[in-house]
Design brief:
- The structure is a single chain.
- The protein is mainly α.
- About 75% of the residues lie in helices and about 0% in strands.
- The longest helix has 27 residues, at about 125-150.
- The protein is elongated, with a radius of gyration of 19 Å.
Length: about 200
């Protein structure tokens, strides 16, 4: 283990993330986190000032990973020359990862955090809003490029970008409520086909 204890900190965050997603923040006690992480209170307070501080660090880490996933999809589709086809490829990128996404987590941390008033009042809501804004902005830019390049009539690019984003988040809710992880891939597949039809993209 590194002398700075970074592995222990990550183990605490990993344990807390799973518990908060499954049970909610209020129902996740510090003892639950310590037991799941296999660590002590002393080790916990070496890294975090309080349970609230843990929640903020957890949200910051999740937001960082979320935005990294967004950029990975943008990078992976950057060589798609046709802007409309790139929009479809962007959604397909996540569709292809649908099963992997759901095997890594059963739901979205954002939902668990935003339902807790004390967390949003403490600033975690602002962190999540920054991530949501980044997603909406990048998707809207993809759609705007498709509209300009193809002479398409996309009157409300921002609303369509939001629809794409909420499909991602809604799929998490559907998977969680039904207990069927395959809904993520299925819903993204439906979204991809609808976008391909709307944007005039012929898929091979």
């Amino acid at each position: 283990m590194p002398r700075d204890g970074s592995l222990n900190r990550e183990r605490i965050l990993d344990a807390a993330e799973g518990l908060v997603i499954e049970n909610g923040y209020a129902a996740t006690s510090l003892d639950h986190v310590l037991r799941a992480a296999g660590t002590s209170k002393g080790a916990f307070f070496h890294h975090f000032d309080s349970k609230l501080d843990l929640a903020r660090a957890l949200t910051e880490r999740y937001v960082t990973a979320d935005i990294a996933n967004l950029h990975a999809a943008l990078d992976a589709t950057a060589d798609v020359a046709d802007p409309a086809a790139r929009v479809v490829a962007f959604v397909r990128y996540f569709e292809d990862l649908g099963d992997e996404i759901m095997s890594a987590q059963s739901s979205c941390l954002y939902v668990a955090v935003l339902t807790e008033r004390q967390l949003t009042d403490a600033g975690t809501g602002d962190l999540i809003n920054n991530a949501v804004t980044a997603w909406r902005k990048e998707i809207a830019e993809l759609l705007a490029e498709a509209s300009t390049a193809g002479g398409l009539d996309l009157e409300d690019v921002d609303a369509l970008a939001d629809h794409i984003f909420v499909t991602f988040e809604g799929a998490f809710l559907l998977c969680r409520s039904t207990g069927v992880p395959a809904h993520m891939r299925a819903q993204l597949g439906v979204l991809r086909r609808l976008l391909a039809s709307h944007l005039g993209v012929t898929e091979g």
